[in-house]
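Module 6 notes. Inverse folding takes a fixed backbone as the condition and produces residue identities as the prediction. Think of it as a translation problem where the source language is geometry and the target language is the twenty amino acids. Below is one complete input and output pair. Work through it position by position during the lab.
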């Protein structure tokens, strides 16, 4: 947001699931340029390639995730799990790749980037997005 406001970048894409999107809308230097719907990459539970996953581990191990996709666990498994939060789905995948955790909720792109495997697939998420630009004085 700051980089956009000072002209270091021309546009910023923000998912409506981002909990602080209101800061973009309230910033007097910015304005929404485009609002659209598009699917995220597929989401799933990812582990390291050599990790032997069993579903009951969801209720004994800690799952690392960005906060936004956490409801997927309850919708798919019907009970809470022990969670650690990450700043992004990519960070959650990296934390698993680095051995800090064994299981992450992440997306397909981050799973591949960090050489992980999906052990459970949720789906892609239909999402709405806003592209913000610097406000043009008229």
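Target side of the pair, the amino acids:
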């Amino acid at each position: 947001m700051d980089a956009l406001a000072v002209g270091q970048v021309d546009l910023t894409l923000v998912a409506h699931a981002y909990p602080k999107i209101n800061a973009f809308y309230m910033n007097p230097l910015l304005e929404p340029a485009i609002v659209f719907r598009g699917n995220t990459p597929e989401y799933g539970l990812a582990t390291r390639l050599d990790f032997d996953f069993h579903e009951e581990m969801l209720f004994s191990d800690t799952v690392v995730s960005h906060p936004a996709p956490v409801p997927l666990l309850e919708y798919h498994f019907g009970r809470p799990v022990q969670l650690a939060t990450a700043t992004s789905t990519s960070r959650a995948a990296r934390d698993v790749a680095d051995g800090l955790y064994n299981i992450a909720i992440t997306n397909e792109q981050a799973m591949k980037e960090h050489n992980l495997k999906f052990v459970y697939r949720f789906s892609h998420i239909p999402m709405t997005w806003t592209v913000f630009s610097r406000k043009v004085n008229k």
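Reference fact for the lab report: Residues 2-39+127-134 form one domain.
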